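Hi V.,

You were right to ask for the full record rather than a summary. Here it is.
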Amino acid sequence: MTKASTTLRKAAPKAASADADVVAGRQVLAHAKTGLEALSESLGTAFSAAVEIFAQASGRVVVSGMGKSGLVGHKIAATLASTGTPAFFVHAAEASHGDLGMIASGDAVLAISNSGETPELSDLVSYTRRFAIPLVAITTRPISSLAQAADVALLLPDVGEACPLGLAPTTSTTLTMALGDAIAVALLERRGFTADDFKTFHPGGKLGRKLFKVIDLMHTGDELPLVKPSMPMAEVVPYMTSKTFGVAGVVDEAGRLIGVVTDGDLRRHISNLLSLTAAEVMTKTPKSLGPAILAAEAMRRMNEWKVTSVFVVDDAKPVGVLRMHDIVRAGAV
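Predicted structure:
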């Protein structure tokens, strides 16, 4: 066994009480809170200038960094892209081996380095200066090479790391990620990014499903169970059964929804049901939904109304029918 391995084996973790663990965790979070408050207070003209650069870029925001800064950079690029600002991440070291070709005129670069002296960023910085590509830096040191070269330097407050050794990136990465979120949200608001836009970029995620609207889930066209007021109930009943919604909409000559026939209506008229027409059995002034409301809101209303199927109307005319089951199956609640 080598001396190094012997040393490693001797460095066993010391026992600690649960209370000591909680104290250590709270100290880290308190340190992060202090840093975030200082960062919030520091935002000003430089932040606005950085947001302006990214907003004016006709291409994409290219985020780069090394180590933990690079990992945070991946997240920042992903957040930008998902909130309406085209962005991607370029590894600083890979940039020097061909990936600089991914950065084009019209792009803007966001380079992250806590020290501002990350050597792997040097080629990327030089490239931006050579081709007049806007460069925004996130760093702690205003006199660093990166800050001095950048068009705009966003400075993190120098509050040190939460790590007791002062070495492991902890508070600095928290602040960088928060600053990236601040940039993304500022750009989102500038662009007028909407819930519909967010859903477009998140169609498979839970957040995207939460933003489904009634129009996304309703049944339309030939699936609609619509009948005339004069239709005999002897015909309405099998028609309702064939459509499987447990409801039929009654429409007038202009195609407006004037009533619905439900399973409850059938039971209430069971004694002479087959001798009646749809108009005589229907519930007048039926509940309905608009196509543009969120599916989650539709579910709330349907629960309130104690119905499992409801017609969707536009200008008083039925354009769809929505089942509670459709909302649940889509994961929109």
